[in-house]
Amino acid sequence: MEQSFFEKVYDVTRQIPAGRVTTYGVIARYLGSSGSARMVGWALNGSKNSGDIPAHRVVNRNGLLTGKQHFGQRDLMKQLLESEGVMVEDDKIVRFDEVLWLPREHLKD
User: Fold this and answer.
1) What is the pairing mode between strands 92-93 and 88-89?
2) Structurally, how many domains does the chain consist of?
3) Which of 49, 56, 92, 103 is 20 to 30 A removed from 19 (C-alpha atoms)?
């Protein structure tokens, strides 16, 4: 049975290492659906009660914490990232290029 798009998003997101981040668009492109960055966001928003999907490691293409309002507490997304060693200033990842994780470089299709 083929996985749904949301399940594929969850599988990729689970593999983002602590201390690294990726973007909604990077995940969408990796899954062969380059125009679906918002759908990735919807999938992750729906996963917030799961506990095993590190949605806090997914940010927008500029490194902004655009999904932070979906974490309940105002600064929870930032706190989770900082607890993993990712620096955040003004809701933006510091040295974004250095912590950006690209699934195509780390995962086998």
Assistant:
1) antiparallel
2) 1
3) 49
